[in-house]
Amino acid sequence: MNEYIIYTLEGYTIAPNESIEVENCQVLGFANGSNIDEAVKNLLKDNPWITKAGYDASGFITKQVL
Length: 66
Fold this sequence. Notes:
The protein is α+β, with helices and mostly antiparallel strands and 66 residues long. The chain has one domain (2-64). The protein is 23% helix and 36% strand. It is built from two helices and five strands. The protein has helices at residues 36-46, 49-52, and strands spanning 2-8, 13-14, 21-22, 26-33, 60-64. The strands form two sheets. A three-stranded antiparallel beta sheet has the order 4-1-5. The longest helix is centred in the middle third of the chain and has 11 residues, at 36-46. The mean pLDDT is 93.
């Protein structure tokens, strides 16, 4: 089983100065799987808030943690 970090370019963060929106990556979590597709499936199964928040899995960036 491999471990993956899954993140997206969707969304934004509010800086301490709330009048400024910061464009950045959103780390959605870490998940295990035998491949990327299985890891994304496991992440979404274990974290239903991701789908409820409106994130689109087709935009996920997934990298194996070595």
